[in-house]
Design goal:
3 helices; globular
Length: 117
């Protein structure tokens, strides 16, 4: 697995595949101010929910075809996927970790509370 604190770059050659856990995909750039603000959020989600949530980052400025594939018009955009790979929600703009956890719970996929078994 990737380093916990580093964003995961998903290249165009890596197709999205259903994982046994929900998936959170951040589509943005490491050069966009709001996107930069999401970097610690992604690191927190990865650390707090390792094994319970797949967290990916795609730099759409480096991979514009990914922006088209995910139908991204504004960055950052976050896309939520159910464990079966179906998109269940999307959001545009900065999204705090607690709000992301609350949205997953509202969608029927509660994530373990950090610090609790």
């Amino acid at each position: 697995p990737p380093a916990e604190a580093a964003p995961v770059a998903v290249t165009p050659a890596t197709p999205p595949t259903p994982a046994p856990v929900p998936r959170f995909v951040e589509l943005g750039s490491d050069r966009c101010q709001s996107c930069k603000a999401m970097i610690p959020v992604l690191a927190e989600l990865r650390a707090a929910h390792a094994g319970a949530l797949q967290v990916d980052f795609i730099d759409v400025w480096d991979h514009p075809d990914e922006a088209e594939r995910y139908k991204v018009t504004i960055i950052p955009t976050q896309v939520f996927f159910a464990p079966d790979g179906k998109e269940i929600f999307r959001h545009q703009g900065f999204f705090p970790a607690d709000a992301i956890r609350a949205r997953f719970a509202a969608l029927g996929f509660p994530l373990p509370v950090p610090g609790e078994g």
